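Appendix B, record 7
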Amino acid sequence: MKKRQYFLGLFLASILGGAIAIGGYQLIKPQDQTVQVIKSEPSAIKLASSTGMAMAAELNFVDAAKLVTPGVVHIRSTTEAKTGQRGRDPMEEFYRQFFGYPNREYKQAPRVGTGSGVIISKDGYIATNNHVVDGATDVEILLNDNRTFKAEVIGTDPTTDLALLKIDADDLPFVKLGDSDAAEVGEWVLAIGNPFEFRSTVTAGIISAKGRNINILRDKNNMAIESFIQTDAAVNPGNSGGALVNLKGELVGINTAIASPTGAFSGYSFAVPSSLVKKVIGDLKEFGVVQRALLGINIADVNAELAEEKDLKVLEGVYVLGVRPESGADEAGIRDGDVIVAINGENVKKTAELQEKVALNRPGDQILVTFLRDGKEKKVTATLKNSLNTTKAIAATNNSVIIQGATFEDVSNDEAKSLGVDGGAKLVALEKGKWKEAGIKEGFIITKIDRRVISNVEDLSASLSRSLDGSGLLIEGIYEDGLKAYYGIGW
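Structure tokens (predicted):
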């Protein structure tokens, strides 16, 4: 009897355990769900982007790379060898002077540089960096299909580090210009160029920032424009002048520089935005020289320290330090102490942004300037002028300017070469005024003012416009007969 009760107890316990197990599973099992499966098909996912570009789930850059690569070229530039004199000991100098021994001259080997370029039209126009072809006497282009061409340098612009080349070819693959203003921080871009002479190198990254000023361009007249697109796409020596493109294969910048303690890529690269490229290249193609539009002001970024010092009501914008007399800003009523906050309705938070927006125009164009004065917003229309303070187009050669009754012209290349100077501003007509009172005569070529090199009338005008404080100036130069002269002139 007891044995029967024992087995019956085991049986009931088993049934109860099974029921508990089944009930517990029902309580803890996952509820029915609808599972969404996304296939890795082309254009399966559309990511948010200013371009509205449909991209694959794995961010496939193949299409853009295939589209752009044929339009990126390799550039080889050769700089003419220079002639110099070797160092000599005192006895050699003695024999040279007394026995007429000639100087021992030597010739340096030609300097060869390499870089990249972007074909921007099917008839052979190529955009690149100025530093890739600066001073070159011979420029050779290697296309992606292995054809080579000699290139003509149409024009250069050191202030933006851009240059325009031309080869004699037709029906070339070219890269379409995109809108750098529409590009956004965080957007994917490709850098395509020829680093280390490895052709068709493609790297990818995102736009890290826009409107970057990294102080790498040097200009004696302080007219350099730095408003770079910053990316983390790897760029190395030889990539200068190459293409920065969006995922549509449109050019949004010309790769120009890297931030590096070693000379090789270490995190960030910088490109001239395509909006500025389009304007500069257009000027070089039409005029052979860039038509720089100037507002005529000295500026600084607004920051917390400046805002406290000047009792400003804002912490960003562009502070006006000074205004050039008779400039567009002066005639529009802009004054020292104003804070510019917008150009043509587009906000400007720093000097780089202001410089870029003004530089997109030509002399004679009008812009709407929004600024703050004593905390109140004002808007004025300003007519932009050139470096000679006129609205006329600047020519590649033979520019002239009238300053204080004296007419100056660019010295010709032939005359500069015969006199052994690199350039200058030649006084061709003289009336009563400060120049004549200083004893300067017609035919004098100004080569320096206060030791600042003067290469043309633009340099002369810019230099004098910064010297309107009543101080004296030291004028250095040379006459047509080779006589060097120095003058002091009150300004």
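Remarks on this record: Residues 297-383 form a domain with the Pdz3 Domain fold (CATH 2.30.42.10). The chain has three domains: 55-97+112-290, 297-383, 400-490.
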